[in-house]
Amino acid sequence: MVQFTSRGLIIGALTLLSVSAVPAVSVAADAHSRPRVPGTDRLVLTVRHAGQADGTYVLRCHPGGGTHPRALEACGALDRRTVWGRDPFAPVPPRSLCTMQYGGPATARVTGVWAGRPVDARYDRSDGCQIARWNDLVPLLPDVRSQNVPSRTTSGTGRRHG
What we know:
Layout: H1 2-30, E1 41-48, E2 55-61, E3 65-66, H2 71-81, E4 107-114, E5 117-124, H3 128-136
Antiparallel strand pairs: 1-2, 1-4, 2-3, 4-5
């Protein structure tokens, strides 16, 4: 009878252990889907040759803040671009076919940490691919499109003749 009881205890103990292990697995699975730790997303943005937007700005997200003039919008844009397996700051792939257009002299550098990963990205507007890459990150990067439109001068009375 003692052997039967000890076997029952062992089987009961194993059953109890296997049942208690299930929540531990669920907790481990939830660790991958938990929200970001507040204050870990911090970027420093340095903009040059972009007119009034020139300067160095700090962007903090989750919660939004820092010295960036459009912090909440910039954090939202980065959140939308942050997708598993894709780097929101990735450079233009090598051998890309890009239009030969010039978007102006503006440059930017973004450094810091985003989604737990280090960031060190450079931006310019030297061709169509670089312009598109820049524009994809507006409002993190300043919207300089309107600054690159050639000004129109008129002579005489300023009237257009058709």
